[in-house]
Request: fold
Amino acid sequence: MKGRKSLTIAFACCLMLQAFIISASAQPVNNPTPSSDTTAATGKNPTSSTDTVTATGKKPVHSLYAGAGYGSNMVYLGTTMSQDHSFGYTSLSYGLNDKLYVTATGYTINGFSPFLAFYSLGLSFNHTFNSWFDISTGLSRYGVAESLRDTLFSNFTYADATLGFDWRIIYSKISLGGLFSEGSQFYLQTRHSRYFETPSFAGDKAFFSFDPYVNILFGKMISIETTDGTTTTVSPGYRPWKNNTQGSSTTYTESFGPMEIDFGLPIAFSYDFFTFEIEPGYVLPLYSETGTSGMKGFLFMASAFFRIF
Reply:
């Protein structure tokens, strides 16, 4: 009961934060409006800190980025894709007019074979209407090595649409997404962040940036009630929940509700065509952890991106 009360208080505080944000009037600010994530599972967007302009002051029509990173655990949409193992990734992203991006990413998981555990192919589009409103859409396909599908997850497709609002003191995103595999699951996310950066130095080529955020994930929850009166609320994750894994006396109830709250503090150093970023974070699940593929605790990730042209 004490743990459940703590989660309720944390969730209530986040809802109060959202209410405060929504009540603020929209104002033009200097915060950048990031485009849709090009590698959805890692949440990294190579264009956010390495944008460039040509000698005429215009952004180039074509751009190409390469990236690599390491993380302590890959938590995505309420579940751990790496089964609580550390992972590494490399990615290549092509951009057209800084609006349309095509990205290919390969992932390796510590202790798993083959070396390329799974991959993702992504397509994203973003458009900024004015200084305080933007939209983005994304479509990603994840393919898993056949020998790991029973251990990790099945192949799936994820699509989402996002609205971005730049308020007086904070940047908010509201995303509606769907995961399609053997079945379908839908998610709602609200992310609130505050981007700021240091004055540039080293010939105006280098700067540090910070983007602390809180993210609340909503999705399908399953309550399991047994004959002895025990009720457990779980998140099904990527795998369709199998009712026959419990006895006939077990009752299942599905609902749509809060799954987890994520906190993060990305810190990046950018120099001309290169960006290095570290991101400590914390995941707080809003459901019982028993029998689920989610996790609770601290996460860490480090990434590097290069702008090739």
